[in-house]
Amino acid sequence: MVKSFLLNLLKKLAFNPFSRKSHIKLGVYGPPNGGKSTLANRICEDWLGETMSSVSHIPHETREIIIKEQVTIKNKKGKELTFSLVDTPGIATKIDYEDFLKRGMNKEDAKKRAKEATKGVIDSIEFYEVLFKFIK
Ligand SMILES: Nc1nc2c(ncn2[C@@H]2O[C@H](COP(=O)(O)OP(=O)(O)OP(=O)(O)O)[C@@H](O)[C@H]2O)c(=O)[nH]1
Ligand SMILES: [Mg+2]
User: Which among 2, 11, 28, 75 is most buried, taking Cβ atoms within 10 Å?
Assistant: First the structure.
């Protein structure tokens, strides 16, 4: 399922990535708790047999950019594509430590998580600019 999703996505891109020599970075972006790490893990499991990220029902589990190098996928014709898969903290407009308190965290952990999450979201935005320049 994820394999065909990924191959279809690549097919829809304006260029044929299987014929490119340059290095490709594929970033997973979205809102907190949106399933980004779950998707990144599925891609990694399907093609590498291992996971790359921690998943949780509490938002902002991913607070740092995680890069898995050398993910190689193959299309039906046997052509290979190797890329770096990038799981990100994603994009958020509001991070409030009280939301973590409501989920049962103590004040110290909740404040720490909120601080790290804020930095993670800024890093995501900066990294997006790097990815975007790369695509252009
Ligand atoms: N029902 C349902 N739950 C999902 C799906 N994908 C992920 N989840 C659940 O959603 C929650 C968040 O998943 P993550 O993969 O950690 O989401 P994330 O976007 O990486 O979250 P952050 O790193 O916190 O931003 C977890 O409890 C997952 O088990 C899905 O397709 N369907
Ligand atoms: Mg995550």
Answer: 28
Looking at the CA of 56, which ligand is closest?
A: 1
Give 117-136 pLDDT, tens digit per residue: 999 999 999 988 777 665 55
60 Cβ inside 6 Å of ligand 1: yes
Give the structural domain span for 17.
2-135
Q: Which atom of ligand 1 is nearest to the CA of 41?
A: 15
Say how many domains are in the chain.
Answer: 1
Q: What is the pLDDT averaged over residues 24-42? A: 95
Q: Per residue in 39-68, pLDDT tens?
A: 999 999 999 999 999 999 999 999 999 999
* Contact present, 37 and 51 (Cβ < 8 Å): no
Q: Which amino acid is at 106?
A: N
Ligand 1 atom nearest the C-alpha of 34 is 19
78 CA distance to ligand 2 middle (Å): 31
SS3 readout for 49-92: CCCCCCCCCCCCCCCCCEEEEEEEEECCCCCEEEEEEEECCCCC
